[in-house]
Amino acid sequence: MERQQQSHCSGCGVKLQIGNPELPGYLPEAAYNREPVICQRCFRIKNYNEMSSVSLDQDEFLRLLSGIGEKNALVVHIVDLFDFEGSLISGLQRFVGSNPVILAVNKCDLLPKVTNWNKLRNWVQQRAKEQGLKTAEIVLCSAKRGQGFDRLLDAVSSLRGRRDVYVVGATNVGKSTLINRLISDYSDLEQELTTSRYPGTTLDSVKIPLDDGHYIVDTPGIVYPWRYSELVERRDLDAVMPVKPLKPAVYQLNAGQTLFFGGMGRFDFIQGEHQSFTCFISGSLKIHRTKLERADELYRDHRGVMLAPPSLEDADKLPQWQRHEFRIGRGSRSDVFVSGLGWIKLNGAEGAVVAVHVPKGVKVLVRPSLI
């Protein structure tokens, strides 16, 4: 081979190898002549939007994170606003030690334009604090739209000093997309990191040299099994992960009514006064309203057809649905949050008893209203 000096993929950071096509980092020997040198998996993602099942062991993810606290580093933690509680690394503080943390809240372009951004920033700060995360700066941004990016660059510049910049986050929160924007401002490298809508695109740390001898380090995404995006088949990712601004859907419900979100989940209004609920979910999921007493029968007879996606075949691959019941007190402005699927806001102050049905293992919780 002519290019032994490059031992890692320029796209995802994994160590390159020519021995086994089933393992991470494989590329044909002849591919070492390409510029830049990337593994076969990254080549297929970039050129054909394909995705292999190659992934890195969870212990390896944690091993890579655990070394950050021993370094002099600035940590940029990227979270997905649409899946905030599902993508926040709640134990990050024990990994980063005393290093400063910028919390970059990505995908803010999904929220309605009338959103009060100061209130949103305060909401993020409070939720992060409750999870034990200390933040030096909170930046609301959209890597896709370029919104808030100047502010993020300013925060990185003011806090970096002579530190390396480590970028961490869960899978599919827009980490590599945002890093590619950083590269264009801080580095002369021409290649970009591999980006896709599939979880786990980055397989190992990717180090991008800066002009002062330090690095931007892109770490692999943490795979959290409680996120809907980790459970559904890849062909259904577009249905649960919105790419366009959310269009809130308001429903006036009486107790004893149910909403189905395609065949992905179900919301029951069990007890309470007539009131409105606002659904913040992907526009690709059609919402069906029915009576609670008919909900089980409707799902049994129509899942995978009228209640789709997922298809009947893909629905059978998901864990059995689990019911989560919540009693929400009077005067509580709350969201019922489903990790990776969205949230339902209770608009009234009357209180309610509600239940959510989603595949077993998906994180469901009640939180103060985001909007």
Tell me what the structure shows:
The structure is a single chain. This protein is an alpha+beta fold. It has three domains: about 1-55, no CATH class; about 60-225, 3-Layer(aba) Sandwich (Rossmann fold), CATH 3.40.50.300; about 235-370, no CATH class. The chain contains eleven helices and 16 strands. Strand 2 (about 100-105), helix 5 and strand 3 (about 135-140) form a beta-alpha-beta unit. The protein is globular and about 65 Å long. The N and C termini lie far apart (about 55 Å).
* Percent strand: 15-25%
Quantity of strands, as a count: 16
Head-to-tail CA distance between termini: 56 Å
CATH topology of the largest domain: Rossmann fold
Helix content: 10-25%
Q: Give the overall form.
A: globular
Order of helices and strands: HHEHHEHEHEHEEHHEEEEEHHEEEEE
What's the helix and strand layout?
Elements lengths: L39 H9 L9 H9 L6 E8 L3 H4 L4 H5 L4 E6 L10 H14 L6 E4 L8 H12 L3 E6 L5 H12 L19 E4 L5 E4 L9 H4 L5 H4 L8 E5 L3 E5 L3 E7 L3 E6 L6 E5 H11 L9 H4 L5 E8 L5 E5 L3 E5 L5 E8 L4 E5 L3
Parallel strand pairs: 1-2, 1-4, 2-3, 4-6
Antiparallel strand pairs: 5-6, 7-10, 8-9, 8-11, 9-15, 10-14, 12-15, 13-14, 13-16
